[in-house]
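Re: weekly structure request thread

Next one in the queue (251 aa):
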Amino acid sequence: MKTAEQIILAMRAAADDSRRQVLERFFKTGPGEYGEGDRFLGLPVPLTRAFVKKIGTDISFEEIEILADSPWHEVRLAAFLLLVEQMKAATPSPKRSPLMYAARRSEIAEFYLRIARKANNWDLVDLACYKVLGSYLTQPDASGKMPDNTILDRLAASTDLWEQRIAIVSTLAFIRKGDTSVTMRIADLLLPHPHDLIHKAVGWMLREAGKRNPAALDAYLEANSAKMHRTALRYAIERLPEAERKAWLAR
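Done, posted below.
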């Protein structure tokens, strides 16, 4: 089994000082910004993914948690991408019963929720949550029933910005299964949110829902566009024909 120490040493050896400053600006690490104080090694995401692919599932939760506690942004990203690998390995395929590895999926999801606040920037949330928590919620549990997805409502009601973003972005897994109702429900809870990162996430998920179910997006906008933040609305209508976009923005 791989250790967190081995992974951290390998990632630090690949650090790129010239890229570090670019990433620190991009992820808003200055005083008063949402990523204030975060530290970067300067690794591009494909390189972090390459480290993760080499490890696969050959690592324990205990070691993943050490990675998630790292001060280095890319090391924390590796922790959450390793959980994506764990969930993939426990996901049914045409040759597997839907109940196979159900208990394992539950363990992975519970562990993810325990360390979720350590995903303290939008990429750490967006690259993993729907593939871990969302995947778990859209597959049957050991009893053959679907897991209770009201955990997303509880996350949306959290005081933590990143847990709130996890709540809405995790609904992408439902959208990809053809169910847009969960997205609409969580979007309702987050519409009054004051932060731009939530406005963008809500609009993004509504846009994704509209790709699968244009009528559902239209109905949602009819009911809610007047009270949506303009950023959320612009994201939600981004893929609509220009005339429709103008009509929604003119309301």
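The two ends are 58 Å apart (CA to CA). The first helix runs from residue 4 to 13.
Next request, please.
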